[in-house]
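Q: What structure does this chain adopt?
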Amino acid sequence: MRFEAMWKDLAPLGRAAHGGYFRQPFTAVDHELRHWFRTAAEDRSMTVEEDDFGNLVAWWGGVATAERPGLLTGSHLDSVLDGGAYDGPLGVVSAFAAVDLLQARGVVPIRPLGVAAFAEEEGSRFGVACLGSRLATGAWSWEEARKLRDRDGVWLRDAMASVLAHPGGTDADHLTRRDPHERRRAWVARVAAYVELHVEQGRDLVERGAAVGLGSGIWPHGRYRFDFTGQANHAGTTRMEDRHDPMLTYAMTALAANKQARLGGHRATFGRIEVAPNGTNAVPSRVTAWLDARAATTPALQELVATVSDQAEQRAGRDGTALVVTPESVSAEVTFDAALTELAGEGHRWPVIPTAAGHDAGVVAQAGVPTAMLFVRNPTGISHSPDERAETEDCLAGVEALADVLERLLR
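A:
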C-alpha cells in the first residue's frame, strides 16, 4: 500500500501559496490531475477509461461490461474555490491504496474493480453539482449541459475540448441524439455496486470517538439563483426614501434564510453574489445571489425555500424591487442500500450516520446501483476550506475499511 507516497505526489497540484486548493474542472490543473490518475493506474497495470464527459475509471481485473458487471469505488479530484485537500481526493487515493492492499492479500477478483474519478463534482465552475456523474448516469442530458457557461462565459463544451480527448458534444453532437435513459441503462448494467470513501464534512465521528463511519443517506439539497433587480442611481444624491435598491432586498433575504434554517434545524447559505454595476458610489441595479439550501427531508427543503422566497418577495414589494427565483440544481433525498451497508459494516462497530453534503454516491444510488459510503474522521469538522484535514492514521484506517468491504464483494 502506497497511500502516503500517492498523497505526497498529489498534494502540490492546484494548491495556492496560502494552502487552499483551486482544482477546477477542464483547466490546466485538471490536466495535471488526470495525468496523476493515469500514472497511478499504470503503476498498477490498470486499464483507464475516459468517457465523453471527463469521468475517469481505472479497471483492475478486466474492464466491466454488461455481461460481466464490475464493482466501482473512488470519488472526485476537483475542489471548490479555495478548498481543502481531502474532499474528494481522499476517496480516489484510498481506492488505489485499497487495490494495493487487496493485491498484497492475494485477492483474485471474480469481477472487475474500478477506481473512479468523477468530473465537476463540486459544481465550482459550471454551477451544477455532480455534473460528471449526472451526465454519465443519464440524470442530465447533454442538451441541458451544453447550455452551461462558467463565470467568464466559457461554454462547457469548449472547456472540455481543452482537456479531453473526446469531449461531449463533438462528432456532430452524437450525445445530443443519445437518449439519457439509454445512457443510464448502459451505465447501470456495467456497475454491480458502488462504494465511496469520503472525509467526513462535520464532527459526528469526532464526537463518537470513531475513525471510520458508514453513511445512512444524504439530505436533499439544492442551489437556487435569486435575481434581484432595482434601479441604478447615484449613491450621494439619491435620497434613501427614493431608492429602489436590490441590495437591501438581498440583505434581508440572507438574514431571513439564516433565521429560517436555524428555526428548523436546516442549512441555508448565500455564499456567492454578483452585483451590477458593482460601483462604490452607485446604488446597484441588479444583485444575483445563490442560495444553497439543505434539509433532512424533501418537504422540509421545499418549505424552507418557499418561506425564504416568500419573505424576499414581500421585502421586494416594500423596496420597489423585483425578484425571480430559479432552481439551478436540486438533488432529492438519498437512502443508501441497506443490505450493502450492513455487509460493509460486518464485523465492525462503525457508526451509521447521515450527511448533509452531496456526493456522486447519491447520483449513482438514484440511478439504481446499490451504493454505500464510508467516512473518515475529520478532527476539526471543517470542510470546503484550507483548514480541512484528516489524520494519516485515520486515513489508513479508512483504506483498511474500504479494502475489507471490497474484498467481501470481490470474493
